[in-house]
Amino acid sequence: MTHVFRYELLKTDGAARLGRVHTAHGTIDTPAFMPVGTAATVKAMRPEEVRATGAQIILGNTYHLMLRPTAERVAALGGLRNFMNWRGPILTDSGGFQVMSLAKLRKLTEDGVTFQSHVDGSRHHLTPERSIEIQHLLDATITMAFDECTPFPATHEQAAESMRLSMRWAERSRKAFVARPGYGQFGIVQGSVFEDLRRESVEALNALDYEGYAVGGLAVGEGQEAMFSTLEFTTPLMPQHKPRYLMGVGKPADLVGAVMRGIDMFDCVLPTRSGRTAQAFTRRGTVNLRNARHSDDPRPLDAECSCAACRQYSRAYLHHLIRCEEILGMMLLTQHNLQYYQDLMRGIRGAIQEGRLAEFAARFDEDQARGDIAPLA
Amino acid sequence: MTHVFRYELLKTDGAARLGRVHTAHGTIDTPAFMPVGTAATVKAMRPEEVRATGAQIILGNTYHLMLRPTAERVAALGGLRNFMNWRGPILTDSGGFQVMSLAKLRKLTEDGVTFQSHVDGSRHHLTPERSIEIQHLLDATITMAFDECTPFPATHEQAAESMRLSMRWAERSRKAFVARPGYGQFGIVQGSVFEDLRRESVEALNALDYEGYAVGGLAVGEGQEAMFSTLEFTTPLMPQHKPRYLMGVGKPADLVGAVMRGIDMFDCVLPTRSGRTAQAFTRRGTVNLRNARHSDDPRPLDAECSCAACRQYSRAYLHHLIRCEEILGMMLLTQHNLQYYQDLMRGIRGAIQEGRLAEFAARFDEDQARGDIAPLA
Asked: Is A85 within 8 Å of B313 when comparing Cβ atoms?
C-alpha cells in the first residue's frame, strides 16, 4: 500500500519493461493482465479465486455499473471494492466504448453521448464530467479518461476528427478528476493506425500529466500486424515513467507481442468469455472441450497448469460438464483460462528480469504451434 | 473408513435417532442431508465447497448418468467419485423415479421400463438387474433397489399392485447386487399412504436383509400431514439397527418433522435448485432475493450464517447479481442454502445428543414464523 500513485520501472529488455504500479489498494507487478469484472463480478468466479490465479487488479465497466446497480448505489454500499469484495485495486473504463457497442439510439455531440440502456430502454447522458464522477462514486483506483474509441477502418480525416474530440474530452476528464493519494487517472491515446495522429494525441495528453497512459482504438478489427506496427511507433512517444495500458487486448500471442513493444497492462474478456463457451487456452494452443475427442480422455487439460481444473479433473469430465451445460464447467474453464493468462504474465515478467524475453517469445510461439496433444488411440 | 458397512445407533430422543453410517468411503453422521449431484456435479458448486458446508455424502442420479456420460464411461474413468472428484461416499438412486418423471414414451412391464431419453430421443431399457449394474459401474457406495415410485393419489388397489411389483423388483435388485466390503444396498418401502401396504412392504424387504431401508413414494404431492402420518406408522415397523432414508425430502420443516418420526437420511434438490432461482433458506424463513426491497440493503442475508454469501456480501450485492443473471449469484445462493441445510442437520444432531429435540423443533418453528427482517427505513 502506498499514498502515492506511481510507476516504478525495474528493468528493460528491448522495449519490454518490468515494473510495478503502486496504488492506494495494492501493488501491481507489470506487465500485468487485468481480468474483466463487467457487472461487479468476474463472471463465474469468486473474487478470492480470481486473486489466487495471481491477478492483482481487475477491471470494472462504467457502462454496465451505471445502469445496474447504479453508481450512487455502489457508493452508498462502500464503493465497488467493498460491494464485490475485491481486496485490491480496480480500474474502471470510462463507459464510452460500451455505449457505442451496446447501447441503443446513441447520439454523439461535443458535450457527450446520449443513449438508451440496452437493459430497459431508459435514457442516459454520458459526458466526460459524468463519467469521471461515476468512476469516483465507484471509488476506482484507476479512472480512465472519457474518449471516443475510433472505429476501424477510418480515413485519416475521420480518425483525426475523432481523436481531437477525444483530446478535448481528455482535458475535461482531467479537470473533473479528483486527485486522491494512491489513486490515478489514465489518458487514452487515439489516432487509429496513423503515426502523425498518434503523435499528436500523445503530445496532447502529455500536457495533462496523467498518472498513466492507455493506447485505445486498437483490437477493433485492424489485425495483429497493424496493431503491432501502431504500437511500434506509439509507445516510444509515451512517457518512460508512467504505466502503459493497451485496452481490450487480447489473445496470448497479442500479449507477448505487445509487451515486446513496450506495453505494461492489458485487459480482455477473452479468458472469461471463452471459459463459458468451452474454449481453453493452453501451453499448446487453444482446445475446444466440446469436441467429442475428449469424451473418454482421462488426461488433464494442460499437464503443466496448476489450476483446479487441471489438477483435479480429466478432459472427459470437463467435456461431460460442457455437454450437460453445467455451471461447474464454466467455473472450471474460466478459472483455468485466468490461471493460464496469469501464468503467461508471470513467465513474461521472469523473462524480462533475466533479459531473455526474445527467447521466451520464441519458445512460446513454438509451443503454441505444436497444437494440442494427440488423441488417445 | 471401514470395511464393514454398518449403522451405529448412538442415542435416541423420542423416535429420533442419532447415529453413524460407516462405509468404505467415510462415515456419515445422521440425521444427514445429502446434496443432489444429478449429472456428476452438485450444480454451481465445487466438490470441496460442498464438503466445506458439512456434507459427508452426496447423491448421484442413475437416469442422468446412464444417458450422459454413460455408466461404462464413468467406470473406465475410475468410478463416479474419481470422475467428479468427490472424496466421500456417494448414494445413487435407481433411475426409476426419473424415468417416470423425465423420459418420453415410457412403457412399464414386469421386466422393467423401456423409454426414450429426454436428451436425444435414444431408446433405453432399464430393469432391476441393469439399474444395479449401472450403480456398480458408477461405484456407488450405497446402491438403491430399482422400484416404481407409486404416484399420488392412488387407490388402495393401484398402490398394492405397484408396491408388489416393486417388491418383486426388490428381490431381483438384491440378487443383482454384488456385495463388497463397506458398500451397501438399500431397499425401498412403498405402499402410498396405506398402513397395511407399508407393513406388507417392510416385511417383504426385511426378508432380503438390506444394509438400509428407504421410504419411497412420499413427497409426491400428498402434503406434509399425510407424509408425517405415513412415517408415524411406517418407521416403527422398520429395523432398528439399519439406516432409514426418506427419499426426495424436503423443506427444512419436513426434515425436522421426519427426524422426529425416526428418519436418518434425506436428499432433495430444493437447496440447490432454489439457489439458482433467487430463493434463500434462512433461520427466519425463506427470502426471495430478486425482490427490489433488497436493492439497497447492506445487511447479510442471514446474520447467523457462516457461509461466504453471508460473511462477505450484502443483500444488495446478491440482489444485483440475481438481477444481472450472474453465475456468481447462483454459486453464492446455492452455497448458502447447502450451508443452511447442513447447519440445520448439525443443530438437530446436537439436540438429539442433549435430549432436547422437541425444544429445538419448537424454537425452529418460532424462528421460521418470525419471517424475514424488516426492510430498512
From this structure: yes
Q: Give chain A's contact residues with B (Cβ, < 8 Å).
A: 39-41, 43-46, 68-69, 73, 76-78, 83-85, 295-296, 298, 308, 312-314, 316-317, 320-321, 323-324, 326-328, 330-331
Please give the residue of chain A at the shortest CA–CA distance from B308.
Answer: A46
In a domain, B309, yes or no: yes
Which of residues B234, B268, B302 is at a domain's end?
Answer: B268
Please give the residue range of the domain that contains residue B338: 275-358
Q: Which of A234, A242, A258 is closest to A19 using CA atoms?
A: A242
Contacts of A50 (CB under 8 A, 6+ apart): A35, A37, A42, A58, A86, A338
HSE-CB at B345 with a 13 A cutoff on CA atoms is: 26
Q: Are residues B33 and B139 in the same domain?
A: yes
CA distance B7 to chain A (A): 31
Is A363 within a domain? no
Per-residue pLDDT of chain A (377 residues; tens, 9 = 90+): 557 999 999 999 999 999 999 999 999 999 999 999 999 999 999 999 999 999 999 999 999 999 999 999 999 999 999 999 999 999 999 999 999 888 888 999 999 999 999 999 999 999 999 999 999 999 999 999 999 999 999 999 999 999 999 999 999 999 999 999 999 999 999 999 999 999 999 999 999 999 999 999 999 999 999 999 999 999 999 999 999 999 999 999 999 999 999 999 999 999 999 999 999 999 999 999 999 999 999 999 999 999 999 999 999 999 999 999 999 999 999 999 999 999 999 999 999 999 999 999 999 999 999 999 999 87
Interchain proximity B73–A313, CB inside 8 Å: no
Find the residue in B nearest to A317 (Cα). B83
Q: Are B43 and B74 found together in one domain?
A: yes
C-alpha cell, A129: 464530467
Same domain, B343 and B253: no
Total count of residues recorded for chain A: 377
CA dihedral over B173, B71, B247, B81, signed as positive or negative: positive
The total domain count for chain A is 2
Contact A331 B39 (CB under 8 A): no
Q: Which residues of B touch A45 (CB under 8 A)?
A: 328
B93 catalytic per annotation? yes
A267 catalytically annotated? yes
Regarding whether B203 and B320 lie in a shared domain, the answer is no
- Decide if B208 is inside a domain: yes
pTM across the whole model: 0.98
**Residue B242 sits in the same domain as residue B337:** no
Q: Which of A267, A297, A302, A372 is catalytic?
A: A267
B337: helix, coil or strand?
A: helix
**Does the annotation list A121 as a binding residue?**
no
Domain final residue pick, B236, B268, B300: B268
Which of B264, B267, B297, B343 is the catalytic position? B267
Q: Which residues contact B172 (CB under 8 A, 6 or more apart)?
A: B127, B128, B129, B146
Q: Which of B77, B82, B299, B323 to mutate to test the interface with A (most CBs of A within 10 A)?
A: B77
CB-nearest to A327 from B44, B296, B317 is B44
Residues B32, B12 share a domain? yes
Rounded to whole angstroms, the Cα distance separating B282 from B315 reads 13
**ipTM above 0.90?**
yes
Report yes or no on A364 lying in a domain: no
- Closest residue on chain B to A320 (Cα): B69
Peptide bond before residue B128 is cis, with ω within 30 degrees of 0 = no
Please indicate, yes or no, whether residues A175 and A252 belong to a single structural domain of this protein. Answer: yes
- Does residue B238 share a domain with residue B338? no
The residue among A324, A240, A349, A66 whose CA lies nearest residue B119 is: A324
Q: Is there a binding annotation on residue B190? A: yes
